[in-house]
């Protein structure tokens, strides 16, 4: 009986780890009930921790628009947030969790503080989290997600703090610290998506007979994972560090692709093409595999690229560059990026006429239109007017389809 109970506990905890990695929060309450019915973890608050996480993440999923606008969430209008915070306060006051799960509770509380606009408290919680323990090789996949979220929460919290009474030196130090957090968050998030792909696409020994190709699971990245992927290059570009922003975009596009990173790669490729066409001249262009020129770095107040100054804690796997085609000039690289992006945008285009798909249709039209606009600029510079006319025809077809669906 003991071995049977032990096997059941391992099965339930493995299933919980999988749900936490795949962000399937709706499935967690049923597994938590089974675990509590079997009287596992009676001496600690593990079940309460999982309940708090599921409540918090479902609340965040329903308030993505508010999070993007940096609008604080209020407990009075968000009952799940209030319940999650209550559970976490109880857990932290009791102190019955092991160090591993205590770190997870601290990070969840950092999320609560951040979404409530209490950025100083969020930064303090991140400082207490043992980030080094989340990078060990034998840790579950979802720890990489926690690591990426911890770094981006810390970076965003630093950027949101008021600077009226801060000296210029301290402000520069804070900007550097937040950027280092964003770079680490991006690499950790990309590593997480790669590891998650392995666990989802590799069949289990016991399920291999039943299904050689298990169904792929849709990955909802959520606000903090999306921020972890994008914040580094957006921060650099916002501060006017165009060369280092372009370098960061090239770095992430060389990462081995995973299912969860497809929409991010599409946005990153379009952004890189935009930067190249608008800010890099033919004479100042540098190859994709090389670091930014020293002249560019000197103008941006840096001696080396930021990824060299702030090495990653968990590097993602990158494609080998041996034998690969390498663009020779700025327009060639931009057009190549846009053609790849156009193919991805066409494949992801929403053509459903259902009323609840109206917003998705509009977003897909805007994505495709922005790519075609940039392609027009790039092809016109090369005098490729025949190809440009084909691009314009594709644009008109897409717009006509959108108009027909609206009618």
UniProtKB/TrEMBL annotation:
Superkingdom of origin organism: Eukaryota
Alphabetized InterPro entries for the sequence: Endocytosis_PI4K-reg_protein (IPR051722), TTC7_N (IPR045819)
Residue ranges of domain Tetratricopeptide repeat protein 7 N-terminal in the record: 1-391
GO-annotated biological processes: phosphatidylinositol phosphate biosynthetic process; protein localization to plasma membrane
Any single Gene Ontology cellular-component annotation: plasma membrane
Annotated protein name in UniProt: Tetratricopeptide repeat protein 7 N-terminal domain-containing protein
Species, as recorded: Solea senegalensis
């Amino acid at each position: 009986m003991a071995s049977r109970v032990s096997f059941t506990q391992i099965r339930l905890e493995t299933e919980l780890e999988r749900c936490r990695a795949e962000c399937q929060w709706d499935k967690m309450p049923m597994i938590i009930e089974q675990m509590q019915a079997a009287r596992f973890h009676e001496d600690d608050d593990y079940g309460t921790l999982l309940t708090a996480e599921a409540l918090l993440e479902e609340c965040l999923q329903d308030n993505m628009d508010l999070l993007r606008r940096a609008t604080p969430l209020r407990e009075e209008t968000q009952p799940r947030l209030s319940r999650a915070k209550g559970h976490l306060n109880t857990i932290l006051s009791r102190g019955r969790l092991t160090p591993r799960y205590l770190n997870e509770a601290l990070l969840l509380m950092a999320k609560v503080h951040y979404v409530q606009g209490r950025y100083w408290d969020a930064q303090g919680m991140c400082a207490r989290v043992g980030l080094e323990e989340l990078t060990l090789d034998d840790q579950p996949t979802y720890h990489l997600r926690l690591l990426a979220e911890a770094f981006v929460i810390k970076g965003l919290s630093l950027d949101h703090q008021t600077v009226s009474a801060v000296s210029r030196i301290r402000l520069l130090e804070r900007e550097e610290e937040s950027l280092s957090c964003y770079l680490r968050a991006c690499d950790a998030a990309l590593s997480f998506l790669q590891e998650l792909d392995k666990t989802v696409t590799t069949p289990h020994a016991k399920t291999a007979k039943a299904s050689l190709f298990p169904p792929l699971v849709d990955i909802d990245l959520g606000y903090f994972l999306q921020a972890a992927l994008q914040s580094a290059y957006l921060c650099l570009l916002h501060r006017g560090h165009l060369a280092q922003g372009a370098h960061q975009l090239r770095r992430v596009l060389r990462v081995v692709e995973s299912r969860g990173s497809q929409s991010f790669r599409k946005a990153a490729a379009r952004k890189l093409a935009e930067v190249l066409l608008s800010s890099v001249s033919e004479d100042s262009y540098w190859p994709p595999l090389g670091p930014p020129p020293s002249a560019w770095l000197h103008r941006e107040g840096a001696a080396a690229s930021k990824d060299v100054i702030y090495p990653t804690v968990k590097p993602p796997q990158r494609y080998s560059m041996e034998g690969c085609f390498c663009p020779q000039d700025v327009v060639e690289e931009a057009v190549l990026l846009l053609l790849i992006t156009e193919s991805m945008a066409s494949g992801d285009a929403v053509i459903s006429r259902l009323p609840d798909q109206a917003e998705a249709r509009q977003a897909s039209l805007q994505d495709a239109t922005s790519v075609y606009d940039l392609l027009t600029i790039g092809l016109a510079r090369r005098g490729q007017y025949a190809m440009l006319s084909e691009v314009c025809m594709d644009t008109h077809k897409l717009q006509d389809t959108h108009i027909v669906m609206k009618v």
